[in-house]
Amino acid sequence: MTTQPKTTRAPRIYLAGDTVFRPAAAELFRAMKDICTAAGLEGVCPFDGQAEVDALAPGAETSLLIARLDRDLMDGCDAGVFCLDPFRRAADMDPGTAVEIGYMAAQGKMLAGYTVDGRPYPRKVAEYRSRAWGDALRERQGTGGSGGMEDADGLIVHSEGMVQNAMTEGFIRLSGGTVCVDADLLTAFAMAIDSLRQRLPGSAAPHNN
User: Fold this and answer.
1) For every one of its 209 residues, what pLDDT tens digit does the chain have, with 9 covering 90 and above?
2) Given CA atoms 117, 123, 128, 131 in this order, what sign does their dihedral have?
3) Which of 28, 84, 103, 190 is the most buried (most CB within 10 A)?
4) Virtual CA dihedral for 21, 26, 29, 31, nearest 10 degrees?
């Protein structure tokens, strides 16, 4: 009786972020997958295995199907890399990506993040409020917690020392990961992928071009 040799596969990385909504999303994902391959990893994007979605009419059923398919993709991945860029010109990141961070963190998987916007989160909030509403932040009455300022509605401007909400960037850091910043999106992404490669068991050495 012969024993079949074990086959090893490259670690699978879920490519999360608002990339799916951007112009030329397919081309962006191809470039990201090439970066993953060069690092000895397999990039998995939300478009993978979802060709049937393009033929469906927009609506609640289609949206729920996409959520289920994305969840299934995350279940089959070993780690995730997340774009923390502000979404729709606001201060906060894409909320769907934030959910995915929490989902994969709860599975105990390795995470990394990247962004082209390294401004501290409170500064993002201050500049958004000024631009969108014409008001300014004010000092809180009281001390302690995650922020010393509040907005014109009295909401604490939290997550000082981070580029995004502490529950999103924080979960990445609690997994042992980091958030990489560069003005070029793909450069920031490649930095995040390299940080994952160094931590993931079974990842191959990067390929030299």
Assistant:
1) 555 445 588 999 999 999 999 999 999 999 999 999 999 999 999 988 777 777 778 889 888 988 899 999 999 999 999 999 999 999 999 999 999 999 999 999 999 999 999 999 999 999 999 999 999 999 988 777 778 899 999 999 999 999 999 999 999 999 999 999 999 999 999 999 999 999 997 655 555 54
2) negative
3) 84
4) -130
How many Å from the N-terminal Cα to the C-terminal Cα in the chain? 42
Residue 202 pLDDT: 64
Distance CA 42, CA 114 (A): 18
How does DSSP assign 59-104, residue by residue? SHHHHHHHHHHHHHHHHT-SEEEEE--BSTTSSSBPHHHHHHHHHH
Please give the backbone phi and psi of residue 62, each rounded to the nearest 5 degrees, phi first.
Answer: -65, -45
Joined together, the tokens standing for residue 32 give 């990201």
Contact 18, 92 (CB under 8 A): no
Q: What are the φ/ψ torsions at residue 196 (nearest 5 degrees)?
A: -70, -45
- Residue for token digits 């509403």? 133
Render 123-162 in DSSP notation, one character per residue. Answer: HHHHHHHHHHHS---EE-SS--TT-SEE-TTS-EE--TTS
CA 117, 112, 125, 17 torsion: positive or negative? positive
Separation CA 20–CA 40 (nearest Å): 23
